[in-house]
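Design a sequence for this backbone.
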C-alpha cells in the first residue's frame, strides 16, 4: 500500500448562495435601488482535515452540515474561498449521479463521457464497457438516450461506470440510497471488495450499519466545522447525543 496517498484540507472556507438573501437582494435591486445585502453564506468554516492511506472514513452530520461539500472540495467541483487542498493520488468520485451525464446521448455513449469526466478515458476498452453494462442491468436500454432514464436507471449507470475504475482515492456520497433492493444488495457486496482494495475511501452516509461495518474512522461535521473525529461507534454516539 502506498503510504503517500493522502488528502490534506488546510484552513478551507467555502461559501454558497443563500436563496432567501438572493431573493431579498433582487427585490431591493428592482424596487428599492441602493445598497444590496450579501448573498453568500459559509458552507465550510476554516476547516482542516487530513486523510491517509489505510483509512475508510465516514463523514456524518445533519443535512446541510457540509459533508457533501467536503467531497466536492476534494474533487475540485467546489473551489475554496481560502485555504488549500492537497491531493496525492488519483480520485474516483461517486457524488452526484447525474454530474457529467449528457442527456441527449445514449447510456453506452455516456460510459465514455463519464470516464472522461473522471480522467479515466485512457482505461476505456470494450471489455470494461461490457462489464459496466452487465453490472448496471440496463440491457437494451443502454442504447437509449439518457434523458429517457428514470433516476434509478441513471444512478445505476453512473455507479456502474465508476466502480470499474482503478483508483487511489474513492469518494462516495449516499451511493446506496437509491435503486431497488436487489441492486443495492449487489452494490454493497461489490463495494465491500472495492473498499478493501482502494488505499483510501471517504464516504458520506446516513446508513449506520454501513459505517460500522466498513469504516475505521468517523468525522462528525456540524455547521461546516469538525465537531468530533474518532472511531465510528464513539462518533455516532456523540452524533446522537
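Sequence:
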Amino acid at each position: 500500500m502506498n503510504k503517500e496517498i493522502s488528502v490534506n484540507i488546510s484552513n478551507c472556507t467555502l461559501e454558497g448562495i443563500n436563496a432567501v438573501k438572493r431573493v431579498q437582494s433582487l427585490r431591493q435591486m428592482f424596487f428599492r435601488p441602493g445598497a444590496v445585502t450579501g448573498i453568500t453564506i459559509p458552507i465550510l468554516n476554516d476547516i482542516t482535515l487530513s486523510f491517509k492511506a489505510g483509512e475508510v472514513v465516514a463523514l456524518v452530520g445533519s443535512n446541510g452540515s457540509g459533508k457533501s461539500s467536503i467531497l466536492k472540495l476534494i474533487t475540485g467541483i467546489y473551489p475554496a474561498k481560502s485555504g488549500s487542498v492537497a491531493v496525492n493520488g488519483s480520485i474516483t468520485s461517486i457524488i452526484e449521479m447525474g454530474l457529467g451525464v449528457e442527456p441527449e446521448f445514449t447510456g453506452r455513449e455516456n460510459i465514455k463521457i463519464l470516464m472522461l469526466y473522471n480522467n479515466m478515458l485512457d482505461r476505456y476498452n470494450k471489455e470494461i464497457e461490457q462489464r459496466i453494462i452487465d453490472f448496471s442491468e440496463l440491457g437494451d436500454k443502454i442504447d437509449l438516450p439518457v434523458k429517457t432514464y428514470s433516476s434509478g436507471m441513471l444512478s445505476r449507470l453512473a455507479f456502474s461506470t465508476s466502480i470499474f475504475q482503478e483508483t487511489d482515492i474513492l469518494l462516495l456520497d449516499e451511493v446506496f440510497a437509491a435503486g431497488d433492493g436487489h441492486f443495492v444488495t449487489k452494490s454493497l457486496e461489490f463495494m465491500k471488495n472495492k473498499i478493501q482494495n482502494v488505499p483510501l475511501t471517504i464516504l458520506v452516509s446516513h446508513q449506520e450499519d454501513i459505517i460500522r461495518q466498513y469504516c475505521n474512522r468517523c468525522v462528525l461535521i456540524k455547521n461546516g466545522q469538525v465537531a468530533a473525529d474518532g472511531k465510528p461507534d464513539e462518533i455516532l454516539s456523540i452524533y446522537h447525543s
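Residues 181-197 form the longest helix (17 residues).
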